[in-house]
Recover the amino acids of this structure.
């Protein structure tokens, strides 16, 4: 087909250009359709497994607390994508270790503490207050000797006497168990 000039526009192979455009569009959509979801054989492992915070007891021997109970210093490492500014420590007493004087209240929820950064340790004065609070609780039930406890970090918005559901909902770490020796105590109630 011959081309001709109309003064402002060139007319020519418009029909061929339209066919090429349609073919190019179909080829593009076909290519993109092949880029859909592909099955993967290897499972994807998360960048940070488990709870947002991992806690561990310090391996150095703690200075004995005058209250008669000494919880080892607690170190933490946090998921950099889920940092918290404040947290509370929950200390749970293993009821089996309490024997005959089974406590009615088996956990202590400490007040909030600043936990800035992706790694660190709970402050020594905070741990001292936890020792005193736990010692007071154990003394009120006359519990003495070797006991088992577990500790966990939770969000600071937790209530003073939370149930298991609230603790699980606001947990930042997993439970970390340890054995303690209670050196003080009396006959209980």
């Amino acid at each position: 087909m011959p081309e001709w000039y109309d003064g402002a526009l060139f007319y020519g192979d418009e029909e061929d250009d339209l066919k090429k455009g349609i073919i190019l569009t179909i080829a593009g959509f076909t290519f993109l359709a092949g880029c859909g979801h592909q099955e993967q054989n290897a499972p994807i492992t998360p960048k940070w497994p488990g709870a947002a915070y991992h806690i561990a007891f310090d391996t150095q021997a703690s200075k004995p607390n005058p209250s008669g109970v000494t919880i080892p210093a607690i170190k933490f490492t946090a998921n950099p994508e889920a940092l918290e500014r404040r947290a509370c420590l929950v200390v749970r007493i293993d009821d089996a270790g309490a024997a005959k004087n089974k406590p009615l209240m088996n956990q202590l929820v400490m007040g909030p503490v600043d936990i800035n950064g992706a790694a660190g340790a709970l402050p020594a004065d905070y741990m001292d207050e936890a020792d005193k609070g736990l010692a007071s609780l154990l003394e009120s039930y006359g519990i003495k000797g070797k006991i088992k406890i577990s500790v966990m970090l939770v969000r600071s918005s937790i209530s003073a006497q939370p149930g298991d559901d609230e603790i699980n909902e606001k947990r930042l770490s997993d439970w970390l168990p340890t054995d303690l020796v209670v050196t003080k105590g009396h006959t209980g109630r």
